[in-house]
Model the fold of this input.
Amino acid sequence: MKHKDMVENEETEEGVGEENAQNSTPSEAGSTLEEQLAAKEKEARENWDRFLRERADLENYRKRVGREKEELLNYGNKSLLEEILPIIDNLERALAHGSEDDLGAVIEGVRMTHTMLLTALKKFNVTPIEAVGAPFDSAFHQAMAQVPTDEHEPNTVVEEYQRGYMLKDRLLRPSMVTVATPVK
Done:
């Protein structure tokens, strides 16, 4: 019987040992589960933050593309218009040097062409800058010369060599002008 009691005792001790192992395992398992849960919560927060950043980046991209599209629509024909401006310059020079007596029909034709070009440019929101008599503004005028005079206020545009143009609210080309200075 002793042997049987010993075996039962060993089994009981093993059972107690197993219980202790099972008791320690749940606490260890509990802390491991808590650690895993904390790690997953951290990963979820990081994923949420990444999602929010990506969404903000996408929204910023959409806004930027919208602005670029609007810019292209408003100012995309700038290079074409810059090519047309020298034609207008030459027509204006021809009108300035022609006389009504000599070539009335030619001058009338050039005048009509000039008017048609200016009308076409207006359709594309291109407008001439009125410079003569206006105060000099380096944002819209390019000073080619200065003339001392008492007839005009100092820093006033007195002559225009080449007309400047605006495309909507943006300068397409500055006016080339002569500016009045005080007589010394």
Remarks:
- The helical segments are 2-75, 78-97, 104-123.
- The beta strands are 126-128, 141-148, 157-162, 165-167, 170-173, 175-181.
